């Protein structure tokens, strides 16, 4: 692209440069870059890839918000199991399926997304797009 979307992202867990670029494009409201970034993310379902980085960043940003004092949580736990019901209700069904198999360990400091990436590879592209939309929406909320 011939332009940039300057922004300091708050989430240090989005490690992949292209994933960070996509989130900055979303925050800037640039449809052209968002469309290109979506294609990149949907095509890169490898461990450590664009989608993996976004999914990991989303979960690690949300886990501290999902913590409820006085409600002990045993780890490892699934991301779906940690999330409050009112938040899960807003996710599309494919997103819920992916987060049911993402395991959070070490009190929310590490995420195993490999099972979710396998599930994403088996999904039709329209379902992968729904998951990506939910993840980007959640990441955007965390950046505001």
Structural features, described:
32% of the residues are buried. The protein has helices at 17-28, 31-43, 50-66, 79-82, 85-88, 93-101, 114-122, 125-143; strands at 77-78, 103-105, 110-112. It has a three-stranded antiparallel β-sheet. With 144 residues, the chain is mainly alpha-helical. Helices cover 60% and strands 6% of the residues. Helix 1 packs antiparallel against helix 2 (31-43), helix 3 packs across helix 8 (125-143) and helix 6 packs antiparallel against helix 7.
End-to-end distance: 25 Å
Measured as a percent range, the helix fraction is 55-70%
Major β-sheet annotation:
3 strands, antiparallel
The total beta strand count reads 3
Q: With helices defined by DSSP (H or I, 4 residues minimum), what is the helix count?
A: 8
Shape: globular
Q: Quote the beta fraction.
A: 5-15%
- Category by helix and strand content: mainly alpha
**N to C succession of SSEs:** HHHEHHHEEHH
* Rg, nearest Å: 15 Å
Q: In order across it, which strands form the biggest sheet? A: 1-2-3
Mean pLDDT: 91
Which residues sit in consecutive blocks of at least 5 with pLDDT less than 50? none
Task: Give the helices and strands, then pairings.
Blueprint: H1 17-28, H2 31-43, H3 50-66, E1 77-78, H4 79-82, H5 85-88, H6 93-101, E2 103-105, E3 110-112, H7 114-122, H8 125-143
Antiparallel strand pairs: 1-2, 2-3
Helix pairs in contact: 1-2, 1-3, 3-8, 6-7, 6-8
Structure described in brief:
The protein is mostly helical. It contains eight helices and three strands, in the order αααβαααββαα.
């Amino acid at each position: 692209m011939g332009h940039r979307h300057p922004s300091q992202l708050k989430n240090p867990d989005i490690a992949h440069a292209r994933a960070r670029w996509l989130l900055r494009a979303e925050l800037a409201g640039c449809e052209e870059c968002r469309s290109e970034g979506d294609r990149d993310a949907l095509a890169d379902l490898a461990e450590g890839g664009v989608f993996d980085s976004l999914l990991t960043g989303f979960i690690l940003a949300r886990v501290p918000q999902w913590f409820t004092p006085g409600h002990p949580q045993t780890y490892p736990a699934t991301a779906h199991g940690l999330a409050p019901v009112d938040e899960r209700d807003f996710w599309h069904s494919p997103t819920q399926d992916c987060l049911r198999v993402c395991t959070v360990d070490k009190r929310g400091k590490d995420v195993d997304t490999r099972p979710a990436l396998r599930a994403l590879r088996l999904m039709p592209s329209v379902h992968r797009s729904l998951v990506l939309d939910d993840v980007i929406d959640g990441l955007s909320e965390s950046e505001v």
